[in-house]
């Protein structure tokens, strides 16, 4: 039997049977890594669409956030070899249907909210030879008033240990470490010593095709370099509580994000601009 694209799309539109253990893991550890969220065939459908859009859009908006100076050679290698293309859902109906489907529902269930909005999505392609992503917390970059926001990290290919899967410091969303620190300023060995002292073990594991991780904005994470000759193709979607309000930006990165991802939204108001797509599953 031939499976059509419409049948594959139906899979990502249908609910996923989330286990209570996943919700518990998300709350206790700040991350839920869930296997078999999607079949290999649907991931391949998504991959082709994401790659086509990255190829089409990449040269114009690729690496647009290379706005600061990155003095360290490692960080430079990481930046140069990282293709980031944002808000693909606004360019492709197929990607939009993926973003509003089961992935969004899982995000809402993990955060315990009745509906979510898209903060933004991005293709994160770490080219062959691309450097490591340093330890960081995402929320440092976001002018968002509560912790009800997460990143869904969706591999479009199997990610072996030598390709740079995400590593997570379990429970680190509950320790107040590095919340005011930019990614490039966090020293790896000091951070890891501090995490060990705080009893936050580092989970390192590859991703199968169809597996997805969801991490809270305050969870410390990193990724290794891509030592292979293949591109590490990933799509991420950042979902926030549908009632999330804009806080006064606390640093220049947050100010940049305010302008870019919350256009026209006053401080204190719900972030409901036209690019913050609301998704409620009723
Ligand atoms: O993909 C990477 O190497 C880093 C991604 C990341 O930090 C994130 O999506 O929050």
Can you describe this structure?
The chain has 282 residues and is an alpha+beta fold. The protein has a single domain, classed as q2cbj1_9rhob like domain (Jelly Rolls, Sandwich). 30% of the residues lie in helices and 21% in strands. The protein is built from 8 helices and 11 strands. It has helices at 5-13, 20-29, 40-61, 73-80, 93-99, 102-111, 188-197, 252-261; strands spanning 31-34, 82-86, 115-126, 133-136, 149-155, 166-169, 202-204, 212-216, 221-223, 232-241, 278-280. The strands form 2 sheets. Strands 1, 2, 3, 5, 8, 10 and 11 form a 7-stranded antiparallel β-sheet that branches. Strands 4-9-6-7 form a 4-stranded antiparallel β-sheet, with helices on one face. The longest helix is centred in the N-terminal third of the chain and has 22 residues, at 40-61. The model is unreliable at 60-73 (pLDDT under 50). The site of 2-oxoglutaric acid (AKG) has 11 residues, from β3, β5, β9 and β10. 2-oxoglutaric acid is lined by residues 124, 126, 133, 138, 151, 153, 164, 221, 223, 234, 236.
Order of helices and strands: HHEHHEHHEEEEHEEEEHE
Beginning-to-end CA distance, first to last residue: 33 Å
Strand residue content: 15-25%
CATH topology: Jelly Rolls
Output the number of helix runs: 8
Poorly predicted runs: 60-73
What small molecules does this complex bind?
2-oxoglutaric acid
């Amino acid at each position: 039997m031939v499976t059509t694209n419409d049948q594959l799309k139906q899979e990502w539109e249908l609910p996923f049977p989330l286990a209570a253990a996943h919700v518990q893991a998300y709350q206790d550890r700040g991350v839920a890594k869930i296997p078999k969220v999607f079949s290999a065939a649907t991931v391949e459908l998504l991959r082709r669409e994401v790659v086509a859009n990255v190829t089409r859009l990449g040269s114009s908006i690729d690496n647009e956030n290379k706005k600061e100076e990155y003095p360290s050679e490692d960080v430079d290698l990481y930046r140069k070899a990282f293709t980031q293309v944002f808000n693909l859902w606004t360019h492709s109906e197929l990607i939009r249907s993926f973003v509003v489907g089961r992935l969004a529902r899982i995000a809402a269930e993990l955060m315990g909210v009745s509906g979510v909005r898209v903060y933004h999505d991005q293709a994160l392609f770490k080219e062959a030879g691309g450097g490591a992503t340093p330890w960081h917390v995402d929320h440092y970059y976001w002018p968002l008033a509560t912790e009800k926001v997460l990143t869904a990290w969706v591999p479009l290919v199997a990610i072996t240990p030598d390709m740079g899967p995400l590593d997570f410091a379990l429970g680190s969303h509950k320790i107040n470490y590095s919340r005011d620190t930019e990614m490039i300023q966090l020293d790896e060995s000091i951070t890891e010593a501090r995490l060990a002292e705080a009893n936050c073990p580092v989970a390192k594991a590859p991703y199968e095709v169809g597996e997805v991780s969801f991490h809270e904005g305050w969870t410390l994470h990193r990724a290794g370099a891509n030592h292979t000759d293949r591109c590490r193709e990933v799509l991420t979607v950042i979902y926030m509580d549908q009632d999330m309000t804009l806080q006064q930006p606390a640093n220049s990165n947050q100010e940049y994000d305010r302008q870019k991802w919350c256009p026209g939204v006053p401080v204190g108001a719900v972030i409901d601009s036209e690019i913050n797509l609301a998704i409620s599953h009723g």
